[in-house]
Design brief:
The complex is a heterodimer of chains A (538) and B (434). With 538 residues, chain A is mainly alpha-helical. Chain A contains 20 helices and seven strands. In chain A, helix 19 packs across helix 20. Classes of the chains: A mainly alpha (538), B alpha/beta (434). Chains A and B meet through helix 5, helix 10, helix 11, helix 15 and helix 20 of A and helix 3, strand 7, helix 8 and helix 9 of B.
């Protein structure tokens, strides 16, 4: 920290004194500052970042931005610092002037590498440099980054910026940043007390962190006010924590549901103990990988659509494998659960090793489309987009399946065959085909789950194994043969897990849930929602 | 190697030596030295271990191209213990008793090593173990070419505590729930406390194997990290659980400059299955990275890509450990003039072999080797940029100095001590060890 501070003083001086320097002199300064980036030692490069910021050149923020993105290169010969020309590929611009540097071969340019300290320095420098930017979002980011760095040297700049600011959101963020910077400085007690009043209504983790620090660093009235503000915040934060547990629980539950829903058909409705269910999920994920691979090489523009393209394909592939399994193996084993278990387990090993032979034992890279990356801040909750998408997708799949079972003629035939095979056959239903299609449907849904799970988990040959136990647990707990049971079961287990986790740790939480299920099954062997009536005995 | 030297060894060595002297001029196809390769090619660990099998095949092929050993060709015997720990012991027995291999290179997880250990001790054969591990073990028959905790975990923590690493004051020790993370975290906890870190500034968290729902833990880490002190995560999370962990970190917006994660089990191979953009800047501590700038490394990487026939394949730390271990074994066999385990075991102590970062590693009397420790930051291309390294070689320490009960123990397999857990306090072999 000492080093950073010693660099900040010239930065400050530069802020004040360089404004009337002539343009050419600045370019030369910038060039000298930039030359530090070509050096090998991280210390020199770190100093270069501060030097660049200190020039206050109008190109400084663009250069630092490029550096942070990894878009700054050392071009040889001459050790020029260049950045790619957005107008033409292979062409570069001199970073110092923005003039064309001509084109370089790939081997002649070397990326300027940065480490974490440099990244923090860049962020800090950009915070002060972009405070006056015409772009609203950049000003907002700048204010937030000053809030985090609590850079007391930015106080004057902030006050000026607040006076100029017209956008109310940005202004509020700037005022908060100013308060944070004030609390980090040696300002008057009255100013600090006012600053705490600005921070206190934020009532989030950042504010809590800031005030905790104030409480330990300051004394007297400031510390007391901070302590009071913290106490007020704690209760609202505790409420948010509960809300977070529920949301995370639903999110975990929806993954469980997605993995189990196909099994609810093959095991729940048909009664086949299908140990290869997890492998159907795995194959669905691999279909996603193949689709993305093809898109990457041939149509990179379509990448954001890759998951939507993968969905029908994954359903088709796994449904066909499911039908083949039913026709080839399972139909000979109806009514013999032990043999079915062993046979499907064998199939699962064969499928795993087949995938391992075709794609290799390593995990495969399945990317997130841009609309599934990042997170949504809702009050104090952080909801990642991929989890939100999965919750929504699960509910859609569940609803679609429910409608298919209740409202279509295939659904009716399926339920009829399950309840009374002879009677259905007598009514002219081709029960053999209904069996095959039902199994295909269950497998296809597992394939859909695979597409979704590829977004949050590894895509490797062992993917399925980690879901098979959980899936059986959900189906048995919810009540075999009942879709509602599967839904409620999955959500209950998800939420229970997430409420236990903060207290007992992830390992013990899992054990406790298992123990709970064992006890529950003792009491209610048919699960949450047991089937009633004559159909249940079949 | 003089004849006299050979005769001083035991009867077994003499017999082998005599056979060698009589036939060394004629190399027949049947006369090979067998090398066992004991790595899982199926099951959960196949992801990591298959590569090591391949690198062993490459090393054997290269050695044969150089003329083999003692005038004989080498032959790799590959078995598949299928990530099944008891099967490791069975396959090890098969390699030693049936195939009569001269040495075995293999095992990855600590539990597989513990499972084969009694077999190697009973049948007196040699095992080269290439993976970083928790220490607290020393066997006459095992050579640990991966990092001991003081060659990976402790330097990594030192780096983070330094000015360059960001002067970290608060620590999250996150790991998978099994022996390696638990022991490593125990060592780290007591090390951190010895450096004046308070109890409330250490958060320890364990998760089951293959844990995939990291929402709660990542948001806990975020909370823990917003207490106004610089925070870092030391991750001993193993295998597949890493991918969802890093994805969650990225999605919840925890950047490396806020809370850096330093991992001990994430290398180039693991990153290959990952979108590394959100991970840029997170750290890993190893003794080797593919990005090491040394001529020997460049040629190794090239040979590896040519051998495997895929330009995208990467190299990693355990591969280097096999490279060093195999060359040490080969040098020891040449030095002893025989493949007899006892003779090789005596000869290998003090043997040096080039490592891939341009230096030389030496086999120490405690059956651990000297290695440089490197800290790398993850880059966008899935490689590591080396940001820090130890000034010299670090000697692997079998018994950690930061654990009660093992601080007094040393291991020295040279005669006359020849003891894996010598207690310096009581002056006796067989102190309180694990």
């Amino acid at each position: 920290m000492y080093c950073l501070r010693s660099l900040l003083i010239p930065l400050l001086c530069a802020l004040i004194f360089t404004s009337n320097l002539s343009q050419p002199a600045q370019a030369a300064d910038l060039e000298t500052a930039l030359s530090g980036l070509a050096e090998k030692s991280f210390k020199t490069r770190l100093k270069a970042v501060d030097d660049i910021a200190a020039t206050q050149d109008e190109r400084a923020s663009e250069i630092l931005d490029a550096l942070g993105r990894g878009d700054l290169f050392v071009a040889n010969p001459g050790k020029h610092i260049v950045m790619p020309d957005p107008a033409a590929s292979g062409a570069y611009l001199f970073a110092a002037t923005g003039e064309s540097a001509g084109s370089y071969a790939k081997a002649a340019v070397k990326k300027v590498k940065i480490n974490n300290r440099m990244r923090s320095a860049i962020r800090k420098a950009l915070g002060t440099l972009t405070l006056g930017s015409p772009d609203r979002n950049r000003r907002l980011t700048a204010a937030r980054s000053i809030f985090n760095t609590r850079d007391a040297s930015a106080l004057t700049l902030l006050s000026d910026a607040i006076a100029r600011e017209t956008d109310s959101t940005v202004k509020r963020e700037m005022e908060r940043a100013r308060a944070a910077a004030l609390l980090g400085s040696d300002a008057e007690e009255s100013e600090k007390l006012a600053a705490i009043d600005v921070i206190a209504p934020m009532a989030n983790q950042d504010a809590l962190a800031l005030l905790t620090q104030v409480m330990s660093n300051d004394s007297g009235a400031v510390a007391q006010r901070a302590e009071r503000a913290i106490a007020e915040m704690q209760s609202s934060l505790a409420l948010w924590a509960t809300a977070q547990n529920v949301v995370y629980g639903i999110s975990l539950g929806s993954v469980l549901l997605l993995a189990a829903i196909g099994l609810a058909i093959t095991f729940g409705v048909m009664g086949v103990i299908n140990m290869a269910h997890g492998e159907m999920v795995m194959i669905g994920a691999y279909v996603t990988f193949v689709v993305q691979d093809v898109i990457r090489t041939s149509m990179p523009d379509l990448f954001d659509w890759s998951l939507l393209i993968a969905l029908p394909l994954a359903f088709g592939v796994t449904a066909l494998i499911g039908i083949a399994m039913e026709r080839g193996i399972i139909r000979f084993l109806y009514g013999r659960p032990l043999e079915t278990l062993l046979a499907t387990w064998g199939v699962s090993l064969i499928l795993q090793q087949a995938v391992r032979s075709i794609f290799g034992p390593n995990n495969r890279l399945v990317g997130n489309p841009s609309w599934m990356s990042g997170s949504l801040e809702l009050g104090q909750l952080t909801l990642t987009y991929n989890r939100i998408c999965i919750i929504a997708f699960t509910l859609v799949v569940f609803a679609a399946l429910f409608v298919a079972m209740r409202k279509t003629s295939f659904g009716l035939q399926m339920r009829a065959v399950v309840q009374n095979r002879q009677m259905s056959a007598a009514m002219g239903i081709r029960t053999k085909w209904v069996d095959a299609l039902t199994f295909g449907l269950g497998s296809g849904i597992a394939g859909l789950a695979g597409v979704a799970i590829s977004q949050i988990d590894n895509v490797g040959p062992n993917l399925g194994q980690s879901y098979i136990i959980d899936s059986f647990m959900v189906v048995v707990f919810g009540g075999v043969g009942n879709l509602w049971g599967t839904l409620v079961g999955a959500m209950t287990l998800g939420v229970a897990n997430k409420f236990l986790e903060p207290y007992s740790g992830a390992v013990l939480a899992k054990i406790l849930v298992l123990v709970f299920i064992i006890l529950f099954i003792q009491k209610r062997p048919k699960g949450l929602f047991a089937l009633k009536g004559r159909g249940a005995e079949a | 190697m003089s004849k006299l030297n050979l005769l001083r060894k035991g009867i077994g060595a003499a017999v082998v030596g005599a056979a060698l002297l009589s036939t060394s001029a004629v190399v027949s196809a049947e006369e090979t030295i067998k090398v066992g390769v004991l790595h899982s090619l199926s099951g959960t660990m196949a992801i990591s271990e298959t590569t090591l099998k391949d690198v062993m095949l490459m090393l054997v092929e290269q050695q044969n191209a150089k003329g083999g050993l003692l005038g004989k060709k080498l032959e790799a015997v590959v078995v598949d213990p299928a990530s099944d720990w008891p099967l490791f012991a069975e396959k090890a027995r098969e390699l030693i008793e049936k195939e009569k291999v001269a040495a075995v290179f293999g095992a990855w997880t600590s539990v597989s090593r513990k499972s084969v250990l009694p077999v190697f001790e009973e049948l007196n054969s040699l095992l080269f173990y290439p993976v970083q591990y928790e220490g607290e073990e020393s066997s006459k028959n095992v050579f640990y070419t991966g990092a001991a905790p003081n060659q990976q975990a402790i330097p990594a923590v030192d780096y983070l505590m330094s000015e360059e690493g960001g002067e970290v004051k608060r620590w999250v020790l996150a790991g998978t729930d099994y022996v390696y993370p638990r022991t490593t975290n125990k060592i780290l906890e007591s090390y951190l406390k010895s450096k004046g870190v308070a109890d409330e500034d250490i958060m320890i968290n364990y998760t089951p194997f293959g844990h995939s729902d990291w929402q709660t833990i990542v948001s806990d880490i975020k909370k823990f990290g917003s207490a106004g002190k610089k925070t870092a995560v030391v991750s001993t999370i193993n295998g597949d659980a890493n991918v969802p962990f890093y994805k969650e970190l990225g999605n919840q917006g925890i950047a490396a400059e806020d809370i850096p994660v330093v991992a001990f089990s994430v290398g180039e191979e693991e990153l290959a299955g990952l979108d590394t953009k959100p991970l840029v800047g997170h750290l890993a501590a190893w003794n080797y990275f593919q990005s090491v700038e040394a001529p020997i490394n460049e040629s190794f990487v090239e040979e590896w890509k040519a051998f495997i026939g895929d330009d995208k394949r990467v190299t990693n730390d355990p591969m280097e450990a096999h490279f060093i271990g195999f060359n040490m074994w080969a040098a020891a066999v040449e030095k002893a003039g025989t493949t007899d385990p006892d003779a090789v075991g005596d000869a290998i102590i003090g043997v040096t072999a080039p490592n891939l970062s341009g230096g030389y590693s030496a086999m120490m009397p405690n059956h651990h080797i000297t290695k440089p420790v490197l800290i790398g930051e993850i880059q966008e291309d899935g490689q590591f940029e080396i940001v820090w390294e130890t000034p010299g070689m670090v000697v692997g320490d079998a018994w950690s100095d930061y654990l009660a009960g093992s601080a007094d123990l040393i291991s020295d397999w040279r005669k006359p001590m020849a003891c894996g857990n010598f207690n310096t306090k009581t002056g006796k072999c067989g102190g309180s060890g694990s």
